[in-house]
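notes to self, project folder thing:

trying the whole complex as one job this time. last attempt i did each chain seperately and stitching them together was a nightmare. two parts in total, labels are on each line so i dont mix them up again. if this works i'll redo the older ones the same way
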Amino acid sequence: MAKERVIYKKPESLTDVPFTYCWGCGHSMAHKLIAEIIDELDMREKVIAVAPVGCAVFAYDFWDFDVTEAAHGRAPVVATAIKRVHPDKFVFCYQGDGDLASIGMAETIHTANRGENISVIFINNTNYGMTGGQMAPTSLISQVTTTSPYGRDVKNAGYPIKMLELLSPLQGVKYLERVKLTDVPSIVKAKKAIKKAFVNQLTNVGFSMVEVLSACPANWKKDPVKANKWIDEEVSEYFPVGKIKDIT
Amino acid sequence: MRKGRIKIDRNRCKGCMLCIDACPKGEIKQGTAINKAGYNVVEFRNNGECNACMLCAISCPDAAIEVIEIIEDVKK
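result (full assembly):
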């Protein structure tokens, strides 16, 4: 009689609620990786996550640990407050590009500059996904979105912001890495990077941020496989994957 | 060769087909069943080629795939 052994299953830190994200969305994968890491570090009871405004606003439905909601772009300052009041808790922000790089730019830069001991997961899908795919500060040059139907024009809208390169000179920032989720090796690397950012907080290293180049197949009008290919060919060309800063 | 099988959670699967792309053995196919949310979910072919490599489960964004390793008894 053959025996059976489960070797991979849904992480404990995810609830039974199916993700409401679109098919092939990078948010689902990022949620899953974070849940797996929290299971591995066995710290579900001491985690407090700060969810953004954007597609991931419903993160508290999917994660089986404490999640609070911040006003648009204000997740890092809410996380700062929680971490200062409860230094023994593990606090991380989960933010999209519209949230972190546009309306929350001031909060992001000042939190990083203060070197708060928090981890930030930055999901960059190059548009405002929740509201229907408008142009974001991170939209690529000549990328067609609903508010740039002829493609992003540098004359009017400027160049896409590279957040990690912008933050790297700040002395309070300890760890910055950009990852993608397009195939199995890069998913494994992404998990490693997020885990490192989390461990940095546990060992009181300081501010860490991981930028995840994430697919938005619905707004890019591509199927998930083609969306991942587009990240490999175009998005990671402008936003190079790899470690930007590591002084841990 | 290691043997295995997968279990697909029909409520979580969105039929994004990233697992079909990831499986080196072609053991997963687009199914005909439609779930509660209206997605056309994928199916496990069960041709006996699955070796529980977990590539499908790792690449599944929705955590819909459970991988089970089958351990055969060695007869002496």
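what i see at first glance: Chain B touches chain A at residues 4, 9, 11-12, 14-18, 21-22, 37, 39, 52, 54-55, 57-59, 61-73 (CB under 8 Å).
need to look closer tmrw
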